[in-house]
Amino acid sequence: MNLRSYPHDIQKCELKFHSNAFPNNILQFSHPVIKMHPEALESSSLVIAGCETFVQKANNYDKYFSECVFEIFLQRRMEFFLYQVYTPN
């Protein structure tokens, strides 16, 4: 986590899916189509600022494997931060 610009920071969460059992010539991921509903995934402190997906080749033990990567960008809600800091418990 990079907290230098906290609470105005944006965090990137990566999800990587690949198979070590089946090399690229047997199993290949295709580019996924995502229909995302950000309002369903938001929390009180974070909001989804964006999402990217791509397929790449991963190198492992001199073999190439297909890898599907999802990147989700999360941004803090300033209202939540101000409420937590300036309101006593």
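(the above was protein one; protein two follows)
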Amino acid sequence: MNEYLLKIEHLNKTYNDATPLKDVNLTVNPGEVISVIGPSDTGKSTLLRMINRLENATFGKIYLKIYQSNDICCMKTHQILYALFSGAT
């Protein structure tokens, strides 16, 4: 069984004049450390805002698995994202 922390499937974000995210797929498993890098205006901040539920996707799904343990069960979404994207545990 695959124990992911974050899973993104076919994520798209379209604005009137731009499509910063097109068919993004990503799985982050426990213990993995990832980086989101790229030039300006390529969708990095949009991706993080969508994971944090500050923006809605045009299409696609985001799954954020929350484990019930002493370390994470009471954390808010932004704290989980900090732990996920900073490599903190």
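Reviewer note on protein two: Residues 70-76 have pLDDT under 50 and may be disordered.
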